[in-house]
Amino acid sequence: AQSVAQPEDQVNVAEGNPLTVKCTYSVSGNPYLFWYVQYPNRGLQFLLKYITGDNLVKGSYGFEAEFNKSQTSFHLKKPSALVSDSALYFCAVRDPLRDYKLSFGAGTTVTVRA
Amino acid sequence: KAGVTQTPRYLIKTRGQQVTLSCSPISGHRSVSWYQQTPGQGLQFLFEYFSETQRNKGNFPGRFSGRQFSNSRSEMNVSTLELGDSALYLCASSLGLAGVQPSTDTQYFGPGTRLTVL
User: Which of A48, A50, A90, B109 has the highest count of CB atoms within 10 angstroms of its CB?
Assistant: First the structure.
């Protein structure tokens, strides 16, 4: 079975500081990994995904994520956080060889203070 | 291009009733997936439709059903509503079927339908 864990329920950072949201996964094959963001009363917005190739993936709104196979992690990063980045972030994983379902982590609430 | 649209945005029903939610995918997208989001269980996969056929299904009771039309629009139905069905129901569309072609299976979500069961 595949699973994804987001070990931090909340992340608080000051505006202008680096932002990191952690994600670890467990799948039987090579994973497809995704990050989504959800603003209040809105659906999920796609940020970026890793399928294969370069371990560093760049996405929307200045976000990037690094795939680390040995640590089974896919942490989301932004060099300089904005107040508008405050939202709920979800990591998701799909094992293309086993289960086509997209499994989501529990989510991490990011608060960026001015 | 217009995004995924869902109607209605808000719905209040009572126990025992049934409800139908609608989803219009991004133009050209052929796959539609449905998810239930609750504070306790998080995001859970309900089912995926592609070319009017259910291709994948999550672990939900038979009260939850869906269908897809020839124009890729999809509806989800929940019969005999229970209090625990109160949730945000999210629809997502993608160009292709999940797991077949990685370049086409990124899912794009609609704003959701907030269902409250009293």
Answer: A90
Is A43 close to B33, i.e. CB distance below 8 A?
Answer: no
The DSSP line for A79-96 is: SS--GGG-EEEEEEEEET
Burial class of residue A108 (count of CB atoms within 10 Å of its CB; 0-12, 13-18, 19+): buried
- Which of A36, A100, A106 shows the shortest C-beta gap to B99? A100
Query: Backbone phi, then psi, for A95, in 5-degree steps?
Result: -95, 105
Å between B18 CA and nearest CA of chain A: 23
* Residues B57-101 pLDDT 10s: 999 999 999 999 999 999 999 999 999 999 999 999 998 876 677
Chain B residue numbers touching A41 (CB-CB < 8 A): 111
Q: In this predicted model, what pLDDT tens digit does every residue of A96-111 receive, in sequence order?
A: 776 678 899 999 999 9
Q: Which of A101, A104, A109 to mutate to test the interface with B (most CBs of B within 10 A)?
A: A101
Q: Does the pLDDT at position A52 exceed 90?
A: no
Short-list B94, B106, B105, B102, CA closest to B68: B94
